[in-house]
Amino acid sequence: MINEVVGIGEAARRERAAGFDAWLGALLPGRDGIALVAVGGLGRRQCAPHGDLDLVLLHAGVPGVDELAASLWYPIWDAGVRLDHSVRTLAEALSVAQDDVKVALALLDARFVAGDRALADTLIRTAADHWRRTAVRRLPALREITESRWRAHGELAFLLEGDLKEAAGGLRDVGLLRAIATAGITDALRPAVRAAHLRLLDTRDALHQQVGRRVDRLLAQERDGVAGLLGLRQPGGSDDAQQAAAVVSDGDVLLRRVAGDARTVSHALDDAWRAADRLRSGRRRGGDGRPVRRPVARDVVEHDGELVLARTAIGARPDPSLSLRIAAAAATTRLPIARATCEWLAAYCPPLPAPWPPAARAALITLLGAGPGLVPAWETCDRYGLIDGWLPEWTRLRSLPQHNPVHRFTLDRHLVQTAYEASRHTREVDRPDLLLLGAFLHDIGKGLPGDHSTVGAPVAEAVAARIGLPAPEAALIGTLVRLHLLLPDVATRRDLDDPVTIAGVAERVGDTTTLDLLHGLVRADAAATGPAAWSDWKGRLVAELVARVRTALDTGALPAPPAPDPALVAGPLPVVHLTEDRVSVAAADRRGLLATVAGCLALHRLEVLAADASTVDGRALVECRVQPRYGLAPDPIPLSTDLRRAVNGDVSVTQRLRGRALAARGEGAAPRVVWHREAATDAVLLELRAADAAGLLYRVTCALDEAGAQVRAARISTLGGDVVDAFYLVGGWPSDAERARLEAAVLAAV
């Protein structure tokens, strides 16, 4: 059959289109007043291996058209080809196009296939003429539809499993560029856009061939196969070890190419929308009839709603800082840089010396701190290769995928987004410039072998020195990069009431200036990562840690052990107190109380974020901070009842706990146990890294209790689908054999 034509590329697509043309022409022999018109992929001669057909049966009011249509459609369906079809007169087709902008766009791809050519040509010519006359007026409605689609499908450049057709920067957006170019608004289909379009089409064709059916979403399990069909391979044998290390699979090579192509399409569409806006609103002109020019910064003027270079800047020997200064002006004014200006800067702006001149360094800080204007200005400069001239490391970082599901952006965009988020906290620190630069460089070590915080510190320090920072400030940038995960890791995985925890952080941070910079950086990093990376609970924990470390740095005083809740140490047992985010239980002292409480909470769909267990005057006390697992708080009366019954040894509750908890086990990579022997004052720390699952804390605490370990505290940290659970075990546990036995028991429970 026609769609059995194999192959990837323009020639294969045209071969499939020619085959469909011949087949459809045989189904509809030549006849006056009837024409078969192709739109969509067949209309453009861009037929995918498993694409569908979009056909219009155009007629001039001839009798028997319904029977003729059925005789045409049924053979197509019988052949197993997906079909989108309509039967219309010329007037009906033009009327629908006038009412529906999406139909108007589809008719721009219309192409005669069979039947009455004159009738088809009339439709094609009239639809195109009408679009040219009305496009400027109709584009706002089209833009609204487009932005709704973007919200639904996201940005292709930043998605690990993006839709090649519907996501922003995908094939559907190339159709918009073609429509805008047809209207004569701007030369939207520039060579770079055409090349990106062809590569995206090739990727879609390879995806169809890999999966064996029509599919537009590039799923993770298909990436390596698609990359193989396209002949994409990870670099090998390069002298640049860092460049090669930045890519770990053929699928990553594919993702980076798709991201670059999607950005090219998106940037061209932004330009096209602006050109249409200028046509629709009219240009601001002075008394001489020329567009108004307004100075906005040194060597930079606004001209017709865009930033261009002043004439004096073009005529003189270019300043190496010129591209950075116009980027900073674009970010602060939120005006786009004219395409001709970007092209001129890419061709003629000289490279920056090392170290940078003060004007370039000041412009970079202004750019990074510009807030909402930063991202579009940076993307524009990146599209024209200006960033590579500022930062040679950018080539390695550009479009690098981040496979952790909590990340919503590629690495390069994440760094820029973090700088944007850091601009919200610049008034809280003594050195806002170092906060912005540290935020921008904090993940520069990703893609290199080793821990990215450790390997990234010297890279960031070298960049800071090249930018022109004094040696002590460059060293501080390195410290920020090396320690940028310290505060969230400690806050969520360690006991903040333990003096050893606070002393350890204070020793590593060293001073309050660095502490404040790290606090601003961690909040910016989390906001740039995505919603799953932060919560009010984590924010409170980090703020609490920062406050205690600040006290330790200022006064040398470490926190005293917390006093138990007075309500738990008096009155008849058991005691159960419930608040919105806290569950407190007191019972007669016995082993396994923490496990029992954790099981009850799991039974009622509550996640434990932190747990503390202690014994006071023969009473066992357990205090847990909790949050609903699925966003809906449980009924407090059944929860309180189950807790009271369970801590009193009710066997029926225990059986329910075990049945529910053991039925819900996590999946993924093998769990792992890590020991920390000097992380607590009076305990050894057992850290479990495993897949998240309901009832996990119950199972593990049961295993620890049955193995004879007493848990003083637990801290639960969730990272996407994984958890890092830290358990403070009373006693030193110095024996290797005993630790191995305990570790085996924990892993068996997971």
From TrEMBL:
Annotated region (Uridylyltransferase), positions in chain: 1-295
Function: Modifies, by uridylylation and deuridylylation, the PII regulatory proteins (GlnB and homologs), in response to the nitrogen status of the cell that GlnD senses through the glutamine level. Under low glutamine levels, catalyzes the conversion of the PII proteins and UTP to PII-UMP and PPi, while under higher glutamine levels, GlnD hydrolyzes PII-UMP to PII and UMP (deuridylylation). Thus, controls uridylylation state and activity of the PII proteins, and plays an important role in the regulation of nitrogen metabolism.
Family: Belongs to the GlnD family.
Gene Ontology molecular function: [protein-PII] uridylyltransferase activity
SUPFAM superfamilies, alphabetized: ACT-like, HD-domain/PDEase-like, Nucleotidyltransferase
Hydrolase in keyword set: yes
Keyword Ribosomal protein: no
Gene name in the database record: glnD
Entries under HAMAP family matching the protein: PII_uridylyl_transf
EC numbers for this chain: 2.7.7.59, 3.1.4.-
This protein's name: Bifunctional uridylyltransferase/uridylyl-removing enzyme
Family annotation (PROSITE patterns): ACT, HD
Keywords from the named record: Hydrolase, Magnesium, Multifunctional enzyme, Nucleotidyltransferase, Transferase
Domain of life of the organism encoding this protein: Bacteria
Gene3D superfamilies: cca-adding enzyme, domain 2
Catalytic reaction list: [protein-PII]-L-tyrosine + UTP = [protein-PII]-uridylyl-L-tyrosine + diphosphate; [protein-PII]-uridylyl-L-tyrosine + H2O = [protein-PII]-L-tyrosine + UMP + H(+)
